[in-house]
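Morning, I've got a small favour to ask if you have a moment. Here's the protein in full, and shout if anything looks odd to you:
***
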Amino acid sequence: MTNPIRLRTPPAASAPVTLQPAASAPTRTRVDGWTPTRQKAFIETLADCGSVALAARAVGCSKETAYRLRRKPGAEAFAQAWDSAIAHAIRRLSDEAVERALLGEEVPVFYKGELVGTRRRYSDRLITFLLRHHDPAAYGVPYDYNFVNPKDRLGRKAKTLETHLDKLTDWNEEGDGDDAHVSDLK
């Protein structure tokens, strides 16, 4: 009797964010420079860790040269792969925040200088933040400290500056040369 179930071969494992060889930025050929292989390794490491400095260090280059390569003419595909890698890292960070809010964080407990166990600590602030940002209709719009905080002197000064600049613009447009408008600015 033959088996009626036909087995399929598993699909090829999909790689995370990768840089296609044709998408690498044009560079001069240098042994210690940004070869297409290094560019691909940088993008993959950047997707895993989210840090430009760590990803550049992992491939043996500096973050300054990575940013320089990103700005280089003809490196648009490299910049696009960079943006995709950062977006992937942000999604991972978001997943980690949700996991930490739901499962808490394990904290060691010491008694008389010795480790006696662990306990779970949950962050109410993290839970509130996630609820407000994922369902603002049910949990309220996220609080904006920059516009509501009465102690925000910088914000108030910026608004005052805008008012003064508008008055100066109006005064310059009138162009009558009269200094009477200057007293209005005080």
